[in-house]
Amino acid sequence: MKGLELARAYYAASKEQLLTPYGAYRQRIACGLVGPGSECLGFDDEYSRDHDFGPGFCLWLSDQDFATIGQALQADYDKLPQEYAGFSARSSNARSGKRVGVFSISGFYSQFLGAPQLPVSDADWLQIPEPLLATAVNGEVFEDPLGIFTEIRSALQSYYPDSVKRLKLATAAAKMAQSGQYNLPRAVRRGDMTAALLAQAEFITYACQFVYALNNRYAPFYKWLHRGMRDLPRLGRLHAKIGLLAQTPCVAVQNMIEDICADVLIELITQGYTTPGDAFLEAHVDAILAHKQDVTP
């Protein structure tokens, strides 16, 4: 059983016991599972169960309701069955922090955004580590009668402003060019295999990040960066090419890198971010940054 499925089933089995005493607030409580952990991305497997795994869910309250019933509701949550479907209930620890239980909506989002409100300026957006934004919008909301939690979630899921998206695309393209098209072959010629391997890894990282930006998706924690791009509609096919690249010695990857860069350039042209020309991706950075949303591909 996957973690999200387990959380959904545990909530369905527990909600009457848990929420019946709070009848006046029942239509004010949002429930689901969002936050850190591979299960919130749907990527958990048998190897994920050695830590921070088990039945559990989140309850999100307005600040006023949290101040009124939050402590009591958390105490009742802690009294729920400590085993479900053969799994021990998840418990918090000092290292992983609180991942399930009762939260205020503002407090929950503040742990990822650094503030209870949505980012406003480009600088606000850029100072939030992108994996935290990915964490803030993953998982699933089971119920949200008031819609407050979902309203914030939907606004975040709309992705960065266009100016920040263009910066993300341009940065990834420039980093791909510098690491894969320029520095990697030079390091190989010098016989510096450590530098070549680092360049190969950096190219893979930014190629993945480019695909996320192109799809208006926040790039997750590096462990899931490659796995998460597999099903993305635009350039998701690069998942297989990058996977093969990762398994190939750095002395034999240059044609593979140029092939991936060609796919990226074709997509940039198709989307209207640049025009045909130099195969070196850095040559297209200024065009990407100058792109306006009203340009027709």
Structure report:
By secondary structure, the chain is α+β, with helices and mostly antiparallel strands. It folds into two domains: 3-157, no CATH class; 162-290. 52% of the residues lie in helices and 7% in strands. The protein has helices at 3-19, 38-41, 63-78, 105-113, 122-126, 130-136, 148-157, 162-190, 193-214, 225-228, 238-246, 254-270, 285-290; strands spanning 30-33, 58-61, 83-84, 87-88, 101-104, 140-143. Helix 8 (162-190) packs antiparallel against helix 9 (193-214) and helix 8 (162-190) runs antiparallel to helix 12 (254-270). The two termini are 43 Å apart.
What distinguishing features does this structure have?
297 residues; alpha+beta; 2 domains; 13 helices
SSE topology sketch:
Blueprint: H1 3-19, E1 30-33, H2 38-41, E2 58-61, H3 63-78, E3 83-84, E4 87-88, E5 101-104, H4 105-113, H5 122-126, H6 130-136, E6 140-143, H7 148-157, H8 162-190, H9 193-214, H10 225-228, H11 238-246, H12 254-270, H13 285-290
Parallel strand pairs: 2-5
Antiparallel strand pairs: 1-2, 1-6, 3-4
Helix pairs in contact: 8-9, 8-12, 9-11, 9-12, 11-12
Order of helices and strands: HEHEHEEEHHHEHHHHHHH
From the spread of the alpha carbons, the general shape counts as elongated
Helicity range? 40-55%
Number of strands: 6
Mean pLDDT: 92
Could you say which structural class the secondary elements and strand pairing correspond to?
alpha+beta
Task: Provide a concise account of the structure shown.
The protein is α+β, with helices and mostly antiparallel strands. It is built from 13 helices and six strands.
